[in-house]
Amino acid sequence: MILIAESINVMSKTLGPAMKERDPKPIQEMAKTQVEAGADYLDINIGPARRQGDEMMEWVVNTVQEVTDLPLSLDTTNPVAMEAGLKVCRSKALINSISLQPDRLEAELPLVSKYNADMIGLLWGIDGMPRDANERCMHTVDIVYRANEAGIPNENIWIDPIASPVSVEINQVKACPEFMSMLGDIAPGCKSTVGLSNISNGAPAHLRGHLNRTYMIMLMRYGLYSAIVDVFDTELVSIAKGQMPEIIDLVYRVMDGERPDLSSLSKKEVEYVKTVRVLTGDSLYSDSWLEI
Ligand code: THG
Fold first, then answer.
1. Is 196 in the pocket of ligand 1 (CB under 6 A)?
2. Do residues 6 and 197 make contact, with C-beta atoms less than 8 angstroms apart?
């Protein structure tokens, strides 16, 4: 699976100020450590960047490209900043993201062909967050249609079903794997991605990895092509690279309804089993889900 490293982010306490003050060191350090940790792409998230977003994106892209050749995922809602970044990208860029919001569709679809980029098709509708797997399917059809009309082939579209926190609404958590199981039929040839850390937003920091890793395996089962992740989670990177097949198999079996005898499992296996049960809605989520 392709791993897009999430940590070059304007929300970060250290990198946000570094971006604003144009201090390259912390950003280049973060880029290098994410490359060493196993990233395939680096996400460059400058947020809405309303003022001088174009100068900021151009500067961050050039700053990162001084220390790595990895391809970049450009993450901003400002189309002018997006184009400024695309202009200076040396590898095939990933536009993160284009949703069905009419102003952004019209401003950004032409950039995909103009800069020979890939795009993330974010399933955010005109009315906001899709309610279930069916609405995600309808948005996929719409966005793929609009992209094809603009000359963009399915192979260049990475569909993002939008993961949302397990602490907020379990039906939304269940909707992403359900949608992923249908994506191949609805949009043959399209790729997929997901912002994996969204699932654990609001959970205690030491527990976030359990949710992120287990949810990734659940989505991998339906062919997830890539994910935007915390690449400093070494266990998550091992799983994504296929190095923990017995854990992957265990999660798949629990998804199929198997109820393994917990007393016969290791501590780590028990944690995965309990976490799948929470993420499939079979157990209730609370911050102490691993203890009960
Ligand atoms: N889909 C797409 N793009 C996305 C998302 C998505 N980009 C943004 C986000 N969601 C994915 N990226 C992150 C980046 C950081 C965190 C979560 C998701 C995060 N950071 C820590 C925190 O906020 O606690 C630490 C921040 C810090 O470094 O200080 O959780 O869904 N297409």
1. no
2. yes
Contact present, 274 and 284 (Cβ < 8 Å): no
By percentage, how much of the chain surpasses pLDDT 70? 100
Domain housing 213: 2-233
73 lines ligand 1 (CB under 6 A): no
pLDDT at 63 over 90: yes
Residues in contact with 22: Cβ distance below 8 Å, sequence separation at least 6, in sequence order: 59
Read off the pLDDT of each residue in 106-123 and give the average, rounded to a whole number.
Answer: 97
Specify the DSSP element, H or E, that contains 241.
Answer: none
- Res 128 pLDDT > 90: yes
What is the C-alpha to C-alpha distance for residues 8 and 14, in angstroms, rounded to an integer?
Answer: 10
* Ligand 1, atom 18: closest residue by C-alpha: 197
Residue nearest to atom 13 of ligand 1 (CA): 6
E strand or H helix that includes residue 7: strand 2-9
- Residue 242: inside a domain: no
Within-domain flag for 99 = yes
Give residue 8 CA to ligand 1 midpoint distance, Å. Answer: 9
Token representation of residue 166: 């397990």
203 close to ligand 1 (CB < 6 Angstrom): no
What total number of domains does the chain contain? 1
- Cβ of 122 closer than 6 Å to ligand 1, yes or no, is yes
What pLDDT score was predicted for residue 210?
A: 98
Ligand 1 in contact with 62 (CB < 6 A)? no
Residue 250 located in a structural domain: no
Query: For 85-97, what is the mean pLDDT?
Result: 98
CATH code of the domain containing 87: 3.20.20.20
Q: What's the confidence (pLDDT) of residue 104?
A: 87
> What is the rounded average pLDDT for all residues in the chain?
97
How does residue 130 score in pLDDT terms, banded at 50, 70 and 90?
Answer: very high
- Does residue 287 belong to any structural domain of this protein? no
